[in-house]
Amino acid sequence: MSNTPMPEHYACAALRHYDDAVYLLDDGRMPNADYHFGFTVECALKSLLLRYVGATMDPTKPGKLPTKKPWVQDDDGKPQFFSHLPELWSDVALLLAGRSGGRLAAVLQSSAPFDNWSVDHRYRDGADIIEADVHNRRTAAELLLRLHDQALTDGALT
To answer: For residue 14, what are the CA distances in angstroms to 78, 123, 130, 138?
Structure first.
């Protein structure tokens, strides 16, 4: 198993999912392209949470194993975990409200391209996929990747 820090894993996974999504979309395999655009965004958001928002993968209790989801401590001292889209999109938007990361917060608060996307769609036959939704999700994935790159360049969410 790699000792690479988790933000690096999420960042690499975001790019890998995006490349696969574009390849599949170009080949007309829209349902799986859509699936990978969702994971692109999930991974990019989790990378940003871990790098710039104070989220951690550390155990929530001393002596326990690391968590499998990024988390932050809420105002009541309880862990708030970040899991999958579409909840991840709105959870990060709420977390960033009034904090740094104004551009990312504005994007997350002004749109909801993954509202009807689910990790469980991998079990569907793909017949109900809507082409416009896939293109909107591609646009969102590209925007999130640009914001991720900009944050890496600037050293902070802007």
So the answer is: 28, 21, 23, 12
Distances (CA, A) of 121 to 15, 62, 85, 90: 21, 36, 12, 19
Can you list the pairs that 148-151 forms with residues at least 24 positions away whose Cβ atoms lie under 8 Å?
Answer: 148/11, 148/14, 148/44, 148/47, 148/48, 150/103, 151/48, 151/51, 151/52, 151/104
What is this structure's pTM?
0.92
Half-sphere exposure of 97 toward its Cβ, with a 13 Å CA cutoff?
8
pLDDT averaged over consecutive 10-residue blocks of the chain (158 residues)? Answer: 72 97 97 97 96 91 90 92 95 83 87 93 90 97 96 88
Q: Rounded distance, CA 78 to CA 66, Å?
A: 16
Give the model's pLDDT for residue 108.
92
**Distances, alpha carbon 50 to alpha carbons 24, 35, 92, 117, in Å:** 29, 23, 12, 23
d(CA 64, CA 53): 23
